[in-house]
Amino acid sequence: MAKSDVPTRYAIIDLETTGGSPQRDRITEVAIIVYDQSTVIDRYSTLVNPERAIPTEITRLTGINNDMVKEAPRFFEVARKIVELTEGAVFVAHNVRFDYGFLHQAFRRLGYSYTRKQLCTVKLARKLLPGLRSYSLGNLCKELKIVNNTAHRAMSDAEATLELFQYLTNDRAKPQLSLTLQAEIATSKLPPNLDPKLIDDLPDEAGVYYFYDHKGSILYIGKSNKVRKRVLSHFSAAHKTSRTLRLMAQIADISYTLTGSELIALLLENEEIKRHLPPFNRKQRRRHLKIAVYDEVDKKGYRRLGINSFDPENPPLAGFADRTRAERALQRKAEAYQLCMGLCGLATCSGKACFYQQLKLCQGAAVGMESPEDYNERVEEAIANLIYGEAHFLVIGEGRSPEERSVVAVERGIYQGFGYFEPDFVGGDLEEIRAAVVPKDETPDVRQIIQGYVRKHPGEVVKMEENE
Questions:
Q1: What is the pTM of this model?
Q2: Which residues does 396 contact at the CB level (< 8 Å), separation at least 6?
Q3: How far is 269 from 210, CA to CA, in rounded Å?
Q4: What integer pLDDT is reported at residue 268 of this predicted model?
Q5: N- to C-terminal Cα distance for the chain?
Q6: How far is 298 from 351, CA to CA, in rounded Å?
Q7: Within 10 Å of residue 369's Cβ, how many Cβ atoms?
Q8: Domains and CATH numbers, the chain
């Protein structure tokens, strides 16, 4: 690395805020110390009117109350000063994601894109001072005998962070230190407890990835057509919400499973989230359908279809997001297979031939014009086609290597599972391809995933006969 690439100007920054969410909370105090490797060349500190009440617990922590900020400048009044002081400097903070995230969001609300190179003294201390029990600013001050008499006030914490930074970089003559600083700046967006080499090993291929904490517990499961790119996008946007800030602070390891196929990545992600219930996948694992199609056999032996609220204890024939979609889907299949609208719960039958029967859109099951056996056979066909439009098909996609292909199987309208096969080995034998499928459970989520995918990728669908 060229010597000219080594940073020469740093802005040591600390903020106090009304809470932990960059989107919801606001800044109450800013402190900036501009440092050029050897000399402090500028200092700036101000309270900021957050234009909202400061919570009592925050006042207890920082000592900053509503009266103190009442006459303080609002953020837009100090924004230009912050830009000028940090221009051309590396943004340095202890847990830089927090402070940078708040400033980034504050400028964003003003319509300004604030971007700076970043350096985290937590990560730098972990690398240069390994083995400490904690890398909080308070503990590092104790370990290194750094005085911080008014912790949780911006300028006092900024002064302590500067002294910590000076301690960590006190021998700039060492070539490895310059390289370390450059590496930390380059990887500043990565989680502080994560080895950057793990990122280098991630593939830009389709698969499912896992974030773990230091105990090996799964924090989050995701999927992507390009795993490495997607993981990096998590990290680059982590400063935007308190939730992602908490996630980044806990990530200590990453693993992945290649799938080759985007559809299998979607299916595997869904399966793994339900199995492991990661804490940061709450929204997805709580997703549920509201409306479903169920069936029952009446006293005469006819299968009756009906639309009702989704019951997780009662597996439905098909699930939908709302009643309108369910009614449309059932109406289409009833017309296509000449089912009785009354027995499908879509009309009222009076015990005599109805309007639909007169138009030959129904064969009169409700009035005994056809046997339960004949009617139920068509009901079975309609159910199999209710979700996917086809009862028996394979989805053939990319494999995990050039020599391999993936397969997802649906038979009798039910998801069977997925697997992989080598085209040169099985040729075009669909039965051999189907034999490669590993059985999986079907759920309403799985049906939605496959339905959405085949609608967008009809070219990957291979239709089959039931006994093919």
A1: 0.62
A2: 405, 406, 407, 433, 460, 462
A3: 10
A4: 96
A5: 63
A6: 15
A7: 13
A8: 3-186 (3.30.420.10), 197-285 (3.40.1440.10), 291-386 (no CATH), 393-463 (no CATH)
